């Protein structure tokens, strides 16, 4: 059964919360300490097949990170897998600190048998997010979990306090081992995910499901559901039998509240909805069905859970609630365009969200990024502007710090707004002007619903359309109340356009959230540089910085017994304030 409030979930993790007295009179801040042991479990078998499931402290999905705006989060990750490991924090902006972002371009991986501690702050954020392993296709094996960033008590929330909150991590799932799928990605023989899991559990009423998810509610009460698509490929439509959804938040932004019968959630996206238990006290179906799929109601790719009213003795019955035609993309586009920013409410700060808007901004630069497939050296790859990303042995951020990228990448070697003449593999790093408003146009030449995510930022979704984008497309933009979020869908043969304000210096991953596309090259990095060395502008590397690639840790000298009373030497400790060269 899903946990309702933060308290019960936190019992399952090692967590210490320390109030900082200095801030008590001004704001409430905390340090949250977590120890995570990440391992492969062969006994869970969520769909009754022998496969490794990646767990954290034995949990699948992983434990909740339950934070409040400006809390400091410390996660000590012990890698008990046989693959190198990194975690990324989907939607957490890592203000001034891309060293904690946890992707291949920012961090050396945590090697098997080793541990490393992430230290980051939920700076000026609220909302619904999730974390997941970012390298080696590990996300297909699990390792994901929910993140809540709650409002500080002094900030009013634009809806009454719900009776309880539920995290719904919904996503597609392969019936095979993630290692087997990974080994086949460079071939034409790559299957699609076979199942849809809700909080790691198979569909209700399916004989192969080891268990199913259920959510307990009390008649007359209202609940907040935090929904994330943690899958690898399929967008889904979410709905609850005989109940309406009131959309209130997405990825850190409060939205104009709209009542919906169902909600499309694309890979990597998160939403919060209110649901009132205003029906007869029986059980009801909760459904997540894939988009662009002919999956029928009894298909394993249709996720089914149960909304259980207290004291109900009547199981969910009848047909599953029908959703929109899964191939009706216009329904999905219209719904996406109806999601608007709430300009009058506060979020992480008491001032209204709408005080920072795009109505009269001046665009300094336009990126036009085209996603497609290509055959390179006989292998099928995904590409951006005909460049399939090649992951260097040395993280870009590390190279940036030690040698301004020399020997690892060349800044702006590939065009940000036209496609390369020939498909190539390369280290695609694009510059963005610090504090210069940037328009990013994302084009989709694939036959899937693609989703794009930018680490380090929320961007404003100003437009989306069919066919090729051109400058005249700007006439259709919504510049009054576009929603700010970090992941946007791009429909097949269409485009989406976002505005972003690059005020967060660092090296930031811009990627497809479709795991196969990402793994096979549909990504690049955006370098935002502020020449001011003041650490208040960008944090220096952490004291526990891992080294790899071109920059290996120094070999310690031979062990020599110290002379009596001799001071210990720290000559080989890494100095994060060293001068760049």
From TrEMBL:
Q: Which GO terms describe its molecular function?
A: copper ion binding; oxidoreductase activity
Keyword flag Signal: yes
Comp. bias intervals (Pro residues): 553-565
Signal sequence span is 1-29
List the InterPro entries: Cu-oxidase-like_N (IPR011707), Cu-oxidase_2nd (IPR001117), Cu-oxidase_C (IPR011706), Cu-oxidase_fam (IPR045087), Cupredoxin (IPR008972)
Q: Where is this region: Disordered?
A: 535-581
Query: Can you give the residue ranges of the Plastocyanin-like domain?
Result: 49-152, 168-312, 405-531
Q: What UniProt keywords apply to this chain's record, in alphabetical order?
A: Glycoprotein, Signal
- Composition skew (Low complexity), residue ranges: 566-581
Q: Which domain of life is it from?
A: Eukaryota
Q: Gene3D superfamilies annotated for this entry?
A: Cupredoxins - blue copper proteins
Note whether Membrane occurs among the keywords. no
Q: Which family does it belong to?
A: Belongs to the multicopper oxidase family.
* Protein known as: Monocopper oxidase-like protein SKU5
Give the species this sequence originates from: Glycine max (Soybean)
């Amino acid at each position: 059964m899903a946990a309702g409030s933060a308290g019960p979930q936190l019992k399952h993790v090692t967590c210490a919360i320390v109030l900082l007295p200095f801030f008590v009179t001004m704001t409430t801040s905390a340090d949250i300490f977590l120890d995570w042991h990440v391992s492969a479990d062969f006994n869970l078998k969520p769909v009754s097949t022998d496969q490794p499931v990646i767990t954290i402290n034995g949990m699948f999905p992983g434990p909740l990170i339950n934070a409040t705006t400006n809390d400091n989060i410390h996660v000590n990750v012990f890698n008990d897998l046989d693959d190198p490991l990194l975690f990324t924090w989907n939607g957490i902006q890592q203000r001034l600190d891309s060293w904690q972002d946890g992707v291949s371009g920012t961090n050396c991986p945590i090697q098997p048998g080793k541990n490393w501690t992430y230290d980051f702050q939920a700076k000026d954020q609220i909302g619904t997010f999730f974390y997941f392993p970012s390298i080696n296709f590990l996300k297909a094996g699990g390792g994901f979990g929910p993140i809540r960033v709650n409002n500080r008590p002094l900030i009013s929330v634009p809806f009454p306090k719900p009776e309880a909150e539920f995290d719904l991590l919904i996503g597609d799932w392969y019936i095979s081992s993630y290692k087997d799928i990974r080994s086949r990605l460079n071939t034409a023989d790559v299957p699609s995910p076979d199942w849809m899991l809700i909080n790691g559990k198979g569909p209700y009423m399916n004989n192969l499901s080891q268990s199913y998810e259920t959510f307990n509610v009390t008649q007359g009460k209202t609940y907040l559901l935090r929904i994330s698509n943690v899958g690898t490929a399929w967008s889904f439509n979410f709905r609850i039998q005989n109940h309406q959804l009131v959309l209130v938040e997405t990825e850190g932004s409060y939205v104009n509240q709209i009542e919906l019968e169902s909600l499309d959630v694309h890979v990597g996206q998160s939403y919060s909805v209110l649901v009132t238990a205003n029906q007869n006290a029986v059980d009801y179906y909760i459904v997540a069905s894939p988009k662009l799929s002919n999956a029928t109601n009894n298909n394993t790719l249709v996720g089914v859970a149960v909304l259980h009213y207290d004291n109900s003795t009547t199981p969910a019955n009848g047909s599953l609630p029908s959703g929109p035609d899964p191939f009706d993309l216009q329904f999905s586009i219209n719904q996406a365009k109806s999601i608007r920013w709430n300009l009058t409410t506060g979020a992480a700060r008491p001032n209204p969200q709408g005080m920072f808007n795009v109505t009269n901004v001046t665009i300094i630069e336009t990126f036009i990024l085209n996603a497609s497939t290509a055959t390179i050296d006989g292998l099928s790859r995904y590409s951006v502007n005909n460049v399939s990303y090649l992951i260097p042995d040395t993280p870009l951020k590390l190279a940036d710090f030690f040698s301004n990228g020399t020997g690892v990448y060349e800044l702006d070697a590939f065009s940000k707004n036209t496609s390369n003449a020939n498909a190539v593999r390369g280290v695609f790093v694009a510059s963005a002007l610090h504090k210069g408003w940037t328009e990013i146009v994302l084009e989709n030449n694939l036959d899937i619903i693609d989703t794009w995510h930018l680490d380090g930022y929320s961007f404003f979704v100003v437009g989306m359309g069919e066919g090729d984008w051109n400058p005249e497309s700007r006439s259709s933009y919504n510049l009054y109340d576009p929603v700010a979020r970090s992941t946007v869908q791009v429909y097949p043969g269409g485009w989406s356009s976002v505005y972003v304000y690059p005020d967060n210096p660092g090296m930031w991953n811009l990627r497809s959230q479709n795991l196969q596309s990402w793994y096979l090259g549909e990504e690049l990095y955006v370098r935002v540089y502020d020449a001011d060395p003041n650490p208040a502008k960008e944090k220096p590397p952490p004291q526990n910085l891992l080294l790899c690639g071109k920059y290996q840790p120094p070999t310690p000298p031979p062990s020599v017994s110290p002379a009596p009373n001799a001071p210990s030497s720290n000559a080989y400790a890494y100095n994060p304030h060293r001068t760049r060269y």
